[in-house]
Design a protein that fits this description.
The complex is a heterodimer of chains A (400) and B (206). By secondary structure, chain A is α/β, with parallel strands linked by helices. Chain A contains 15 helices and 14 strands. In chain A, the strands form 2 sheets. Chain A has an 8-stranded mixed beta sheet, sandwiched between helices. Chain A has a 6-stranded parallel beta sheet with strand order 11-10-9-12-13-14, with helices on both faces. The longest helix of chain A is centred in the N-terminal third of the chain and has 23 residues. With 206 residues, chain B is an alpha/beta fold. In chain B, strands 3-4-2-1-5-6-7-8 form an 8-stranded mixed beta sheet, with helices on both faces. The chains are: A alpha/beta (400), B alpha/beta (206). The interface between A and B is medium-sized, with 34 and 34 residues.
Chain lengths: 400, 206
């Protein structure tokens, strides 16, 4: 390898296109890799108003036409989008005079990543953020099996598979029968500096959401079953018995309507506020105002929202499951509760809200842990280390 | 001359009329055309490289077994076609003169290889989705048509078997007339005519 390391990132979302967690993940990872002297080329789907080609924080971004082909369903759209992505990426690589590594994020770019690997004979890395078998809690149709097999194909073709938590490492190893030494754990990160930017008066800001005498209990996430929002709603009366609070629920999902009906029937509409999707700045300010942040997930590959709350210095109460179990040390950096248990959740929340010195201790410990363990600078160095290891192994193969 | 032919059917896998035509073409290329002929096709389990009647055949299978339609089936198979073609490319000193894509199935692979290595391709049309689906315009049919369109757009030559098909290709995908060549396989000099088309493409591309 001559000169700087050249990596092509393949991702179906990159800011300003934000659908889930992959978009910010690839953004921060790429930006920090670029800071560490890696040439990063991101190939991603287009977005209204975003340019086809630009340089963002040292990262070269290419946006491809992703809605060119009519598609009967989401999975077919994904495969057709991959056809276009691969075609465009092939031209880009040719014009660049080659890249060293392809790095694909989830099955959504599997075809493009695998094709490019063979055409240019360069190693492919895959980060598996989530799995179909985990999201659906099993495989129930040909559609789901097809996606599962596509994920398996990607992990098979990848030189290494990166997961964001030990939980995901063991889950992915089980789901696709992978050998242990193919898997690498590199955590997700949070940029604490993003929380220091805002100039808004938080006392003023807070009034938009709660009365001055109310504590703010914050939930952030998609309003879907696996995120456990129903567990929090069921715990509301139990918490209100002990402490005056406002429950702020940020996010959208198919459970929004039924949950709102449920809140109405409980006569608690003045205590629960559904904000829907909010912009990044509002979200960060809310997290800073929150007297406690609750992550009651039933399934959680990583749990980035808990880290964000920690970066905002909000104490966290999380269910003891998946990636959350690894992030939080009980009584040190947060409170762990039994998953799917409103009594346990109510206990955790009131404990934090009624004991200020305990809450402050959690805030401080958690903040320091986030800065030390989950900063992008360190994560990008670990990732660069994986690239270098893979390339040195690659240099001994007949492809090199 | 070194040519790779892509076809989703080739004996012993015979789906329709195309399989035996492609075999005939490949044999003639190898025997009478002085062409080093590679053929990449699909087979469920009989995979690998074979030397058959002078033709270097490579059969690949689909890495994803469960599918919801022929469309998704085709789209995950294309990467295996690319892998097989890339293997030929690297083993032969990076010299492939031309790819002949029989029908729409492996157009995505041909387009990627064109972008990556600058190998021109001929899109040989056996049939069109517009006829197969009787003008149906559901998203499924439109998706296949969008792949056929990509083939006509990126190919150096669109090769059809009748004047009627030439007019249909021009009507359906607005292909410039000069890009469409007709070679009727029932005529005496069909093979020589195809070879002429190949040589024309190679000449233009150089």
């Amino acid at each position: 390898m001559v000169g700087q390391l050249r990596v092509m990132m393949l991702t179906w979302e990159f800011p300003p296109r934000i659908i889930g967690g992959i978009s910010p993940h690839v953004y921060y990872l790429s930006k920090n890799l670029a800071k560490n002297g890696v040439n990063v080329y991101v190939v991603t789907c287009d977005f209204p108003g975003a340019p086809d080609h630009e340089v963002v924080d040292g990262v070269e971004v290419f946006r491809i036409d992703s809605y060119k082909n009519p598609s009967p369903d989401f999975a077919s759209w994904v495969y057709l989008m991959n056809m276009n992505m691969q075609k465009e990426a092939a031209s880009i690589v040719k014009n660049l005079g080659g890249v060293d590594i392809f790095h694909a994020h989830d099955w959504l770019v599997a075809n493009a990543g695998i094709g490019l690997k063979h055409v240019f004979r360069r190693p492919l890395l895959a980060t598996i953020h989530s799995t179909e078998i985990g999201r659906r809690n099993g495989l129930h149709s040909d559609y789901e099996r097809m996606i599962h097999e596509t994920e398996a194909w990607l992990t098979y073709e990848a030189w290494r598979v990166i997961c964001c938590s030990n939980y995901m490492v063991s889950h992915v190893k089980w789901a696709f029968s992978l050998p242990e030494d193919k898997l690498v754990m590199i955590p997700n990160g949070v940029d604490v500096k993003e929380y220091e930017k805002s100039t808004v008066d938080l006392n003023q800001f807070r009034r938009r959401f709660a009365l001055p005498e109310e504590k703010i209990v914050l939930f952030v996430g998609r309003l879907v079953y696996e995120k456990g929002i129903q567990v929090l709603i069921n715990a509301v009366p139990k918490i209100l018995e002990k402490v005056n609070a406002k429950f702020v629920v940020v996010g959208n999902g198919y459970m929004k309507e039924p949950l709102w009906e449920h809140v109405k029937r409980m006569g608690l509409t003045h205590k629960v506020l559904f904000t829907g999707f909010v912009d990044d700045e509002t979200l960060r300010n809310l997290q800073k105002c929150a007297d406690v942040s609750v992550v009651p997930s039933l399934f959680e590959p990583f749990g980035i929202v808990a880290l964000e709350a920690m970066a905002a210095k909000s104490p966290v109460v999380v269910s003891d499951t998946g990636g959350l179990s690894e992030i939080v040390e009980h009584d040190v950096t947060g409170v762990k509760i039994y998953p799917d248990n409103p009594d346990s959740l109510a206990w955790g929340v009131t404990r934090v809200l009624l004991d200020e010195s305990y809450a402050n201790r959690l805030r401080e410990n958690a903040y320091h842990m986030v800065v030390e363990k989950f900063n992008w600078e360190k994560i990008s160095q670990q990732t660069k280390g994986v690239y270098e290891r893979v390339l040195s192994e690659y240099s001994r193969t007949f492809w090199a | 001359m070194r040519v790779i032919v892509f076809s989703w059917e080739y004996p012993p896998r015979v789906v329709g009329k195309l399989a035996n035509y492609v075999r005939e073409l490949s044999l003639r290329l190898a025997k009478d055309g002085g062409v080093e002929t590679f053929l990449i096709t699909y087979h469920d389990y009989w995979t690998g490289e074979f030397e058959e009647e002078g033709v270097k055949v490579c059969r690949v299978t689909n890495p994803v077994k469960t599918h919801i339609s022929v469309l998704t089936w085709v789209l995950t198979l294309n990467q295996e076609v690319e892998r097989a073609a890339a293997n030929i490319y690297y083993k032969s000193g990076k010299l492939i003169d031309l790819i002949d894509v029989q029908d729409w199935h492996f157009i995505p692979a041909a387009v990627t290889l064109k972008k990556a290595f600058g190998i021109p391709f001929v899109y040989s049309v056996e049939s069109l989705e517009d006829h197969r689906s009787h003008g149906a315009n559901a998203p499924f049919n439109m998706a296949i048509k969008s792949i056929e369109w990509l083939g006509t757009y990126e190919a150096s030559v669109v090769l059809v078997k009748s004047d009627w098909m030439a007019s249909e290709v021009i009507r359906a995908y607005k292909v410039p007339e000069a890009k469409v060549k007709v070679v009727n396989p029932e005529t005496k000099h069909w093979f020589e005519d195809i070879l002429k088309v190949y040589k024309g493409v190679m000449g233009e591309f150089r």
